[in-house]
Amino acid sequence: MKRLFISLIIFSLFSLFIVSCYYDNEEALYPTINSSCDTTNVTYSGTIAPILNNSCLGCHSNPATGGSILLTTYAEVVASAPRITGSIKQLSGYSAMPKNSGKLKSCSITQWEIWVRKGMLNN
Amino acid sequence: MRRLTLTFLLSLLAVGIFAQDDLMNILDQNAPKEINYTTATFKSTRVMNGHSIERMPAGQLDVRISHRFGTLNSGAYNFFGLDQSNIHLSMEYGIFNWLMIGVGRGSYEKTFDGFAKFSILRQSTGLKEMPVSLSVVTSAALKSIKFADQTRTNYFTSRMAYVAQILVARKISEGFSIQLTPSYVHRNLVATELDPNDVYAIGAGARLKLTRRISLNGEYYYVANPKTYLSQQIYNPLSVGFDIETGGHVFQLFFTNSLGMIEKAFIGETTTSWAKGGIHFGFNISRVFTLKKPNKV
After folding, report:
1. Taking a C-beta distance cutoff of 8 angstroms, is the pair A110, A62 a contact?
2. Domain presence at residue A43
3. Which pLDDT score, from 0 to 100, does residue A16 have?
4. CB within 8 Å: A100 and B78
5. Using CB atoms and an 8 Å cut-off, which of residues 107-126 of chain B contact chain A?
6. ipTM above 0.90?
């Protein structure tokens, strides 16, 4: 009886979590932000800097946490660009980035490559 | 006269031996049959990444430290991945002999997690015949890494993911055990409409005992959802390695293609493949502390 009682308590505790089940996806939840992958208007200030800010600068703004690779300014990003490409695409021979989470969204990687191919403009 | 007595005594002894034989038979027939529970189906509470049928007995605390290093194909400059490491720490405790709970924290997506494992059936022979052991694992994970986009309205619930698993295991012989693990993973928030919120998978694990202290383990999860058109290519996690028991510790050393160490992460978010060299070296260290002396039955 005691066993049943305790089981019920624990199951109900877990069901508290289950009640908070959502079926969200970022496209539907944030339609204006994530509607599609913009590959035409790729700029440093409008596209690349926000990606770096959200996914890289947590570590790469400080030499101690960033392994002496800094990505805070345009010049620093250009200097590290070949290594960034290898790392975010997680190619063999490069240290896979970002370190504490999954790969960047394929949209962000595509935008990065477009920016590099267009000559890494400071726009 | 003396000789006669000796013969008599000897014959008595012989009768005695026969009688004893009969008594043993009677004892065998009358002794209550016991339930012989199968023990040590697996060495540790994990097969490799995923849960095994084993649980902590009441009053025992398992402190686990796990690492997954970078991929082998990251080259000699990164020491084949060993320069990079992901860690998962957890404390797991047996409340009753049929229930264990655990809490943990992993560096992958800065995730906090908790689980409960209920033992429902135990493989046994003798008085009660039970061909398999069966347990249920439920777990919840809270991803605490900052959202990529801080400007939008982010919800707390978007950080949560839940897992339910049924573990069915059988120790086939002294040295060989298998386990099947139907699993269900729910993610509250996924990247695109094509990414499933619900992931269904079936896991298979096996243990082959090589020596008294070392066993060869393998584990594979087949993810049933279609793996095309996702925002991120995922693969089925496969792990192969060894369990090494040294007194109070169990070391599990293995190769796996998944970076995550909790169900939610390795079932739904394994992004590297064995075929492309995306293999991580990993280990789990388990140390068990007895907090409460077990009650003698």
Report:
1. no
2. yes
3. 58
4. no
5. 107-110, 116, 118
6. no
